[in-house]
């Protein structure tokens, strides 16, 4: 557990909403993804939740929360949310939409208001680890707090 950690916009949102969280710093590796953070923190990669910024055919952004060891089926997501198509944003576009750097994107304190979708099985996890708003920085919290603060729409779009 980190004692000296960045106070990002995400941390401010968590504090404003009375969310109990545990901060964790780790050595960020470009393209290392959730595998690197889960190994360094000694937690199951399934409990590390990635924050992805997608857009629909009209280029409207959306935030997708997914288990670290799973991928998003864009086809199933589009069908479940009533869009023709959805796809991941290019990193620079995701940065503009979220206000965070790719690799440090948190669903808390997004720059632009956008729909948030969450893989439904995340809600049943005992504890999750999600980005705290900076590269190499995760926060551990209970999924019920994520659902209370973000009010995401649950979807079933995970592929192994």
TL;DR of this structure?
The protein has 160 residues and is an alpha/beta fold.
CATH superfamily label: YbaK/aminoacyl-tRNA synthetase-associated domain
Count of spatially separate domains: 1
Strand content: 25-35%
- Count the strands? 10
Q: How would you characterize the largest beta sheet?
A: 8 strands, mixed
The helix tally amounts to: 5
Counting helices, strands and paired strands, the structural category is alpha/beta
Shape: globular
Mean pLDDT: 96
Helical proportion, percent range? 25-40%
Please identify, by name, the CATH architecture: Alpha-Beta Complex
Q: Class, according to the CATH hierarchy?
A: Alpha Beta
| CATH domain topology | YbaK protein
Rounded to an integer in angstroms, the radius of gyration calculated over CA atoms is: 14 Å
Our measurement of the CA-to-CA distance between the termini, rounded to an integer number of angstroms, reads: 30 Å
Show unreliable segments: none
Order of helices and strands: HEHEEEHEHEEEHEE
Can you put this structure into words, describing what you see?
The chain is 26% helix and 29% strand. The chain is of the alpha/beta class. It has one domain (9-159): YbaK protein (Alpha-Beta Complex), CATH 3.90.960.10. A hairpin with a 4-residue loop joins strand 2 (48-56) and strand 3 (61-67). The radius of gyration is 14 Å and the shape is globular.
Keyphrases for this structure?
10 strands; alpha/beta; eight-stranded mixed β-sheet; 26% helix; YbaK protein; 160 residues; two-stranded antiparallel sheet
């Amino acid at each position: 557990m980190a004692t000296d950690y960045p106070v990002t916009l995400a941390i401010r949102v968590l504090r404003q909403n009375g969310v109990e969280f545990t901060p964790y710093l780790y050595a960020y590796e470009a393209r290392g993804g959730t595998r690197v953070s889960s190994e360094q923190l000694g937690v199951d990669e399934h409990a590390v939740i990635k924050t992805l910024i997608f857009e629909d055919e009209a280029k409207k952004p959306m935030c997708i929360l997914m288990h670290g060891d799973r991928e998003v089926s864009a086809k199933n997501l589009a069908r479940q949310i009533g869009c023709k198509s959805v796809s991941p944003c290019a990193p620079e576009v995701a940065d503009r939409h979220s206000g965070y750097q790719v690799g440090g994107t948190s669903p808390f304190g997004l720059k632009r208001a956008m729909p948030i979708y969450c893989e439904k099985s995340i809600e049943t996890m005992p504890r999750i680890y999600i980005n705290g708003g900076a590269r190499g920085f995760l926060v551990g919290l209970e999924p019920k707090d994520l659902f209370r603060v973000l009010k995401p729409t649950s979807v079933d779009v995970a592929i192994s």
